[in-house]
Design brief:
alpha/beta, Spore Coat Polysaccharide Biosynthesis Protein SpsA, Chain A, UDP N-Acetylglucosamine Acyltransferase, domain 1, Serine Threonine Protein Phosphatase 5, Tetratricopeptide repeat, 3 domains, nine-stranded mixed β-sheet, seven-stranded mixed β-sheet, 21 helices, translation initiation factor activity, Translation initiation factor eIF2B subunit epsilon, initiation factor, translation initiation factor binding, protein biosynthesis
Amino acid sequence: MGAQKKGATARVSEDPEELARHPLQAILLADSFTTKFRPITLERPKVLLPLANIPMIDYTLAWLESAGVEEVFVFCCAHSKQVIDYLESSDWSSQPNFLVATIESHNSISAGDALRLIYERHVIHGDFVLISGDTVSNMSLTQALQEHKERRKKDANAIMTMVVKQSKPSPITQQSRLGTDELFMAINPDTKQLLCYEDKAEYSKGFISLDKTLIADNPSTVLHNDKQDCYIDICSEEVLSLFTDNFDYQHLRRHFVKGLLVDDIMGYKIFTHEIHSSYAARIDNFRSYDTISKDIIQRWTYPFVPDVLCGNSAIRVERRGTYRASEITLSRSAQIGPFIVIGQGTEIGNDTKISHSVIGEGCTIGSNVTIEGSYIWNNVTIEDGCELRHAIVCDGVTMKSGAVLEPGVVLSFKVVVGQQFVVPAYSMVSLLQQPTQQDSDEELEYADSSSGNVELPSKLNGDITSDLSETRHGPTSELGTGGVGYIWSIFEGGHDEEWRHSVAPIPTDKLAKIMLDKDEDEELLTQDGNVLSPSGELKSDSDANDSEDGDNEGSRDDYVSFEKEVEATFLRAVHENVKVDHVILEVNALRLSYNMASVDCAGAIFYSMMKLAVESPHSSSSELHRNAADVITTWQNLLKSFLHDIDEEIEVILKFEEICLESAKEFSPLFAQILHLLYDKDILEEDAILRWADEKEGADESDKVFVQRAEKFLQWLREAEEEED
């Protein structure tokens, strides 16, 4: 790799033609550099953890290769031997036109340290992609690279382009679907320059602070809370030298990005590139591990999905999102639900039920086992009668018969859970004793076992699994009879983190408490006499009063946005098997956020249900009707929860008319049948249907089309009403 002596200065070329001659390079940070995956990352590097049975780093490298990157420098520190051994034994060591080289360090404890060391090695020659090995994407880099290079030609201070995408956080938890905190970005909509980056806003105060000069210098600044940082950066060589010049730069975002944004002396600039139809996300915590795993299984990351990465001969994809390896043993009485991955050599016993889960290679699962929403890694033994819901089970774990994992449990490597033992919700269990000190991600971005704050065996940077037998046997009482391992206690202040970052759905009582604590009257973010409109554009109080037409147009735009948010929430519930109670809370939070009424929620939910039905495979009207019936039957309680009176039920019928005329005309000939179905399911009352028809009496003929189509059903209702009288 042509390492330079320490202190050597890299030559930074400013000639675009010379830069273009260099192959596209990437720096991949392989260390987890976070405490959020403990205790697992005390024994194995995060990038080698399985994601739908494939190591995380394989997704990142496969994407970089497809995006045109020719040289990747993989920086590894903690557990570096495991990373290097894996790469050398994998196909990545022999790919034509795609060089994967490793840079090893035993002293670096932050991203800043890593980039300073890479700068000293003088291996980067031109613009490069900066990414971590826990990132999954299928985006094309072509446009982002072109934009970056064009800006560099005009302005040498344009040293970095960050990839972002739209992702509105939950109005209840202020978290994204990846479990990350709500992020505020101020962006110039014309130039796409990043002006402010704030991921630790003071939510309790209801506002964030912005420099007045920022607004004055950029009158069209838009403050976004609906953008997700993809942690894919296109950088110039100057980025590396800036880390060398500023040793206080440790965290990539908290120190480097924010440092550049407030530095008005050097004048360096950061820009954004927003992707829309492509996928990009980083696994930052257990919740994002769960979310991204589901996205992979549902093929949002195509072509980076298990059957493509492993080859169709090794694993095949079947209907309902099921992936099966070629050699598994599956009992005929076992019930395999949707969105499942089953690895090679796994055996599944009689009457076992598995849904929305990933099962690794070489696992033995007994009879009458229930596994829901869980991640079972390799060589795991689960004996008869066990129950697992929304848990992570690492390699080599044994669960004795009748053991139960409550939601949010993480069992680290080779733990043994005793017979009939119930592991409490959100427990972290390891064969390693809990560290006496808790590192903080606030202090260093990368504070894993290499930080020196954890008392562990000395062979930490190698494969320590075989060296732990003398140090990690816990008392059997902690995990029941025959159990082996320690249940880690929760540090002070960590109780909220356990459920916010877990693979388990957030408990209903937690969501309800958050909603009760919210001030329902707070609708606008205020800042020094400015108000933040729903679109995110900053406006002064004097501009807040628009004309009536403008208000109507804004209200319509708000409803369109609200409807899209409800649809996204509904689809997530469908694909991730979210409970109805949780969906009701999420939709109610959206209602408060957008200042909508209950009837607006009902209309948006019904629209989402019918859209799902029409977008599901069908080849005839009868199949479309069956799709609609299945969706309505499954989600009827969700719709009913927002229908409190006759008027609101009539609005749903009007919404259905609108759907039949505009967005899904295929439903038009089925109007009467589906109206009858809604009546049969007690979603619409007889009075609501008859009042809807009566109100159409004086309307134009064009407005009575669906009344005429439902005439037989209406007549039947009227006759039934007369008989009752």
